[in-house]
């Protein structure tokens, strides 16, 4: 009787230990890789196309205001997705090289130019995932009596005086001004400004508080399609490009998931992502040979003509001295 009782106790004890090991093993095997980013800055297709080995950990806007992306690199992160305007916030020593030569070898001229503008420190440690052009969004365009309707010159129409929401970026606005030969006199742009507020530009126009806004196509495309009062222009002189990039923290042991990139820009998601205002970092001519389901009304915007696309440009990272110089030029120009 004593032997049976002992055997039963030992069986229960070892059974519990085995169960704990089993549960521990399950927990380890279920630990997923982490992609982090601000959800509103990219479409859900970026997340939906991930394999089941990954999970998305959103960064809230309020968190980003308190803690920059540099602190995110210290959290549980294997890949970070962000807008190119935040790149200078990333400490280069906290990033590892993203090795994806098969992807990089197919980059377009625009993508290579963008990477060159980042400098040697960043170009191997960031991988462009998508690009979207800055555009001009109008409300009730037919009633505005706009002049030079295919050009950046349209922003100087009298009906838009004090009615345009511009991005809060002197660097970007100076680059546009140079396209219309304003050189160092930016007072003409300032006189047209309702506000400098890229974060809320869409709301200004949709609510009727402004007649136009300069913003990335990707940030207004849903409203553009849903609201018949809205129209958009990609100027014939080309436009600045807004890049979505990936970074990998040095702390992550994971290799870059090239299968994710291929799946995102493959047949399943390609048309959907383009309809969200994003283009792949590969050659645009390759897309035109594909049967993409793009609304005819917006085809020239979502898939620009090469004559326009070839004139688009990226903004290189500036040195601190150059930033101060541009800020001084911008601040010294007064609105008319």
Describe the protein:
This protein has 336 residues and is of the alpha/beta class. The chain has 2 domains: 33-132 and 242-304, Periplasmic binding protein-like II (D-Maltodextrin-Binding Protein, domain 2, 3-Layer(aba) Sandwich), CATH 3.40.190; 133-240 and 318-332, Periplasmic binding protein-like II (D-Maltodextrin-Binding Protein, domain 2, 3-Layer(aba) Sandwich). 38% of the residues lie in helices and 15% in strands. The chain has 17 helices and 9 strands. Strands 1, 2, 3, 4, 5, 6, 7, 8 and 9 form a 9-stranded mixed β-sheet that branches. β1, α2 and β2 form a beta-alpha-beta unit. The radius of gyration is 25 Å and the shape is globular. The N and C termini lie far apart (103 Å). Mean pLDDT is 86; it is low at 16-29.
How many domains, as an integer? Answer: 2
* Distance N to C terminus: 103 Å
CATH architecture of the largest domain: 3-Layer(aba) Sandwich
Q: Roughly what is the average pLDDT, rounded to an integer?
A: 86
What is the SS-derived class? alpha/beta
Q: DSSP helix count?
A: 17
Radius of gyration: 25 Å
CATH topology of the largest domain: D-Maltodextrin-Binding Protein, domain 2
Q: Share of helix among residues?
A: 25-40%
For the sheet with most strands, the description reads: 9 strands, mixed
């Amino acid at each position: 009787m004593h032997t049976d009782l002992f055997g039963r106790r030992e069986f229960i004890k070892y059974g519990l230990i085995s169960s704990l090991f089993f549960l521990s093993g399950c927990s380890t095997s279920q630990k997923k890789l982490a992609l982090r980013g601000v959800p509103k800055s990219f479409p859900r297709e970026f997340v939906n196309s991930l394999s089941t080995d990954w999970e998305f950990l959103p960064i809230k806007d309020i968190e980003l205001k308190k803690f920059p992306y540099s602190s995110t690199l210290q959290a549980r992160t294997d890949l970070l997705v962000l807008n190119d305007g935040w790149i200078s916030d990333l400490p280069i020593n906290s990033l590892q090289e993203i090795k994806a030569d098969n992807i990089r070898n197919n980059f377009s001229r625009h993508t290579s130019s963008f990477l060159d503008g980042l400098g040697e420190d960043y170009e191997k440690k960031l991988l462009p995932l998508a690009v979207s052009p800055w555009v001009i969004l109008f409300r009730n365009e037919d009633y505005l009596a706009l002049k030079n309707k295919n050009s950046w010159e349209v922003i100087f129409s009298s009906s838009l005086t004090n009615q345009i929401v511009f991005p809060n970026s002197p660097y970007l606005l100076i680059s546009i001004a140079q396209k219309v030969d304003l050189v160092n006199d930016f007072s003409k742009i300032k006189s047209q400004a309702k506000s400098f507020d890229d974060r809320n530009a869409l709301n200004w126009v949709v609510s009727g508080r402004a007649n136009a806004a300069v913003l990335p196509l990707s940030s207004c495309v849903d409203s553009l399609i849903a609201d018949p009062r809205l129209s958009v222009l990609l100027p014939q002189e080309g436009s600045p490009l807004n890049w979505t990039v990936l970074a990998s923290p040095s702390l992550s042991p994971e290799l870059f998931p090239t299968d994710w990139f291929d799946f995102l820009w493959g047949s399943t998601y390609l048309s959907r992502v383009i309809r969200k205002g994003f283009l792949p970092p590969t050659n645009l001519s390759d897309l035109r040979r594909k049967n993409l389901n793009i609304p005819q009304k917006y085809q020239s915007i979502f898939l620009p003509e090469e004559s326009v696309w070839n004139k688009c440009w990226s903004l290189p990272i500036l040195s601190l001295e150059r930033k101060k110089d541009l800020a001084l030029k911008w601040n010294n120009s007064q609105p008319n």
